[in-house]
Amino acid sequence: MSRWMRIVAAGCLAAALGAPAAAETVTLDVQYAWPSHKRFHEPLAEAFMKEHPDIKIRYLAPAASYTDGQQRILRSAVTGALPDIWYSGYNYLGELVRTLEPRGEIAELGPLLAAEGADWLKANYADTVLRLGQVDGRQWGMPLTSSTPIVYYNKDLLASVGESADALRTWDGIIGAARKITASGSADGMSYAVNEWGDDWLWQALILNAGGEMMSGETVAFGGESGRSAVSLIRRLVTETHMPFLDEDQAIQQFAAGKLGIFIGSTAEVRVMGDAIGGKFGLGTAPYPAPVKGAGGLPVGGSAAVILAQDPAKRKAAWEFLKFITGPAGQKTVVLGSGYMPTNLQTVRSDYLGQFYAAHPDWTTSVGQWPIARPWFGYPGASGPRIWDEQKVVLSQIMRGEVTPEAGLAALVEVTARLAKATN
């Protein structure tokens, strides 16, 4: 080897030995629910990995719903195959924490939030939002998505039967408008798929809207006036408007095709609705009907991101990802890809969503319902999914007239009390 070549080789070796080692890539397995939510999860991962090239986000096959996802996570805990991050439905967070905390399989986030500093915390998250991710006063999840049910309506169909958005303020007004649309023969009047939803969110909305609650201590609390109001209403929706039995996806497709006048569902579908309609008719959104009794309330739907990773390096990387997806830039991506309410205070600034909201007021309907937003109740133990499996059968029987509303309510109370007690 020539003297010149030896000098070059020695220099290269010295440079290699003196250079800092390349950061090892950390891969995080992330589980989310609802396959359609890929539209914002994928951009979130891409934007995060661009800023953090040493962290790779790998999504697992999405769960069909929060209920399906919860069952999947609990099975994975038994087999030792938990993902590093899971987006738990708020109603299942308590069960998740009480199952995994004793085994050290879920990270408490309170210390991580405290380490970021009080000023950072105050600038980004309202206490009401943070409480969505708390169990027994401790922070276990970072609220990623949040929603309340709203009313979608076809402005053209409503106008064609001589009605306006004012009719949608009350249940009687909605039923009257939907009945006219059905009678016109141009479309089905409405859809409120309480019995076809993936979980009990719309059912809880009816109870809270009537001034009730799901349980008081260990006692089922909707067996009185609030429950009677709810079951009577769902039967009226069928008998008075001839409401078709559609699941959420079917109802959205029918609405977007101009074949459904009114759809009551999650604000998370505002983007989907607008894209699917594509200007074929005027789309409007309105608040959930006025409370049947008193102040009423609405359950906050959505999910909280929890860290299930055991490895310290993965937990550190997972925290960076949680801060990103619940930060203002991440929340802008979530909102614009769905219609969810932002969970970060900075997201409404003009440099994020402020100007967009001003130009698209239909996207702000759910945000205006924060004053009556209530926690999405979670049943004790692991009873939530089993209770809903039984409840939705009874709700279908009530709506189809197979049992009277009174008998159906008694059955709902019985099955809820029995299954909730079985897991205490």
From TrEMBL:
User: Keyword Transport, does the record have it?
Assistant: yes
Q: Would the keyword Transport be found if you checked this record's keyword annotation?
A: yes
List, alphabetically, the InterPro entries matched.
Answer: Bact_solute-bd_prot1 (IPR050490), SBP (IPR006059)
**Signal peptide boundaries:** 1-21
| Subcellular location(s) per record | Periplasm
Q: What is its main location?
A: periplasm
Q: What keyword terms does UniProt attach to this protein?
A: Periplasm, Signal, Sugar transport, Transport
Pfam families according to UniProt: SBP_bac_1
What top-level branch of life does the organism fall under? Answer: Bacteria
**CDD domains to which the protein is assigned, alphabetical:** PBP2_UgpB (cd14748)
Q: Which family does it belong to?
A: Belongs to the bacterial solute-binding protein 1 family.
- What's the protein name? Multiple sugar transport system substrate-binding protein
Which organism does this sequence originate in?
A: Labrys wisconsinensis
